[in-house]
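Extended Data, record DUF503 domain-containing protein
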Amino acid sequence: MIQSVVSEFFMQEPQNLKEKRAILKRILTRAKQKFNVSIAETDFQDLWQRTEISFAVVSSSHIQAEKEAREVLAFLDSFPEWERAETTMEKL
């Protein structure tokens, strides 16, 4: 089963796109290392205080996939560099 998640985040610290990309690279790399997910920035690449992150979790059951997706979201929320605004979860 596949759980797809799309989240929008706002970032206060970056003053330019280079700083934003450095923060994103660090967070997304750590998420990939900690969880077995495919994760990437999927929108707002040209804005330095806003981003959309999408990831997918594959598991043998919908319940496990959703649980792991919530763990990934909690991990992403633990970073003080950004604040999550909106999240959409979908079972595929």
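Summary. The beta strands are 2-11, 38-43, 50-58, 82-91.
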